[in-house]
TrEMBL record, chain A:
Residue ranges of the region described as Disordered: 40-65
GO annotation (BP), single: mitochondrial translation
The organism's place on the tree of life at top rank: Eukaryota
Gene Ontology CC annotations of this record: mitochondrial large ribosomal subunit
Domain spans labelled RNase III: 111-248
Pfam families (UniProt xref): Ribonucleas_3_3
The organism of origin for this protein: Vermiconidia calcicola
Name of this protein: RNase III domain-containing protein
InterPro entries the record matches: Ribosomal_mL57, RNase_III_dom, RNase_III_sf
MF annotations from Gene Ontology: ribonuclease III activity; structural constituent of ribosome
TrEMBL record, chain B:
Name of the featured protein: 54S ribosomal protein L3 mitochondrial
Keyword line: Ribonucleoprotein, Ribosomal protein
Keyword Ribonucleoprotein in annotation: yes
Amino acid sequence: MPSKTSSSARILVDLLRPTPRRPTCDCIHNRYLNRKVPRQARHVSTAAPQQSEMEVDSDRSPRWAITPAGMKAPVRTRPERPNIKINTDQRKLDDVYVNFLGKDGHKLLSEETKWLAVTSKSFDHGRRGFNDRLAFFGLLSVSDSAYFLKSGDQDPHDRKPFRHPAIEAVECLSGGAHDYFTHHKTISNLATQYGLPEVVRWHPRFPDRLDASGADLVYSQAVFAIIGALALEQGGAVANRIAKERVLIPMGMKRNWKPKVEAPESSPTTSS
Amino acid sequence: MKRIRLDRWASQLQPPRNPRLHLHQQRCPFSNETRPSPRREFQQRNYQVQHQWQCQRRHAASRRKASSAVAAQVEDVADEAPIQPQSEPQEQQQRPLNAPSHRRALKSAKLSALHARLSLPSKLPLQTLARCLIDPSVDSRHGYNNEPLALLGQELLGYYTSEWLLCRYPRLPVPVLFAAQYAYVGSQTLGAMRSEWGVETVAAPGPEVDPGLLQLKRVLPGNAMVEGEMMRVKDMPQARRLGSGRRNEQWNYRRGMSSRIVYDDQFGDLQTGLSTEDRPPFPGAPISTTDGNTYPLEGVDQEPNSQPGSFLPREHSERDVESTVEAASASFVRALAGALYLHAGSAVTKTFHKDHVLSRHLPLHTLFNFTHPTRDLSRLCAREGFEPPVARLISETGRLSRTPVFVVGVFSGEDKLGEGAGSSLNEGRVRAAAAALRSWYLYSPPESEIVLPSEVEGGGADKKAWKPQMVDIGEIVT
């Protein structure tokens, strides 16, 4: 039965044990970085390599390619569930990115993020990461950059509200246009055109009936996740441009629009 | 010596009232002095119930803001037959003017005071600010209410908040992200913001009411009695909310987190197409506050205005969908953000967001809820390649007494991941594991490394240099 003395002795021993010197990483203050790195050295962040100065073993598989060893049981007891064929080819993924994002599209994101953006939570039980957070941010980015430029309908009673060129275009938002442009079915069709279904990593419930398993959700989530990843790794300008050019305009959004109201009402502005 | 009473003089100096004045008035389509036209037949049923409720409200708290026209209308309807012959000109058979015209916006002192109080830029005209205060339940015509502005503003506020959260806390789990998003820009918070700004709501909308008040037509509470029936509104047989199309009530179906991102709104809540349905992520969820105290949401089981008839699809333009005060307040704040963006640009909107939304305090660590923290921590260490976590007793006191305290630390190798104190060994261990998980999920990169994506949007020479932000692979699936 451990008594008080032995616990205090243990504390003393802990204090007296020499702490080994570890290389400190001055880029990110993360205590987990400072521990001894045994067999699996890896990037802590998936951002640009210059941010992390840790060594990466070249013979180790990348994170997206293998399930972490500690999360697998040594012997499989249950039979494997049937699954669709999942892409593991980096080149095929890069081709799809070029198709989606344009020339040099495969260089916009880091390798881990490219794979993460097309990985659904159902893939490998979520052990290799998933694109939920990226899709959450990407959806808001797409909605935000979707400033729909379309003139509103004429008021049937010929009554004139306050018109100003700045808010002229906002009327089209109330017709549900925003919901249409971010609807999962339309985005999923777009994803199919870009060839995303071949590279998206997921585990459908019914491998022979992908639509019933929620393929639309997974494909649209992948599209949003790519946009979100672009925003986080390349900035808002690139993400907005891609969202407009490669997602919204192919779905029917107008490119340029000039307001019909030239001058605002000549009413005196507020004077404090 | 008596003081000079200028107010008495003023009343004596007014010209005598001309009883034939109303015949001389121009019938301007925008005139505000119109007598409110009688309600149409299909609005009767709802109106009678509403009238009853409004009468009760008026007796409960005498509000001087109630428009006299509405009071007169109420008395008229109570006395005589609802439908009167149409004697007004043709255009009065259209929708009556329920809200003040934008021409009156320039003369409103409340509106100008609000504009100044919020330090809004002069590029934002008073007329647009007045439009932001008009809910679609009052005036559903295009160009007169704040609905499109609110849609735009909601997206903007949501985008700025989510980028701030994701860049500052890149490892936040998705449920916590939803809850934090609601706490910052959800409707309850925006409603609190509206009252903090000092914007008051009208008792009943009308064309004579000051444009500086928030105009909305209040929805009938579910507990009110239906006219002519013995039931409450919420118990009426057709009191059924519109569904969102998701099969959540099936016995073997559980609405997961991933699907909420695409199917549901930015807070992870079901979209029923109603602007009033902006519910908290879980009962008792805290919202961000200005003073740092945590106020959990009250009224856990408030059934937001489920009532018959007024939840009609958008295409039915003749019926106004009524609104709650909270929803209308949130629409107002969102519309203001949208209007600022349109008139003054994104930089001003970002400043607005930072000043009003991000300045509020939200303790993120209270939003977590772990069911099996020890299991999750073990999975996390396995995934990241750390040594398996081991719990060790750091110190203890009072083991054999009535109130022991055990301080337990969870170690991975020689690094302490987390520490917790409990009144039993197991409790200490579980608390330590939870603390370790929170410290992982609430990791925040150094301030110098954080550049928000919107800071490099658009042109401008004063853009910051972009640094790629951290992308985390995801939380542990519990």
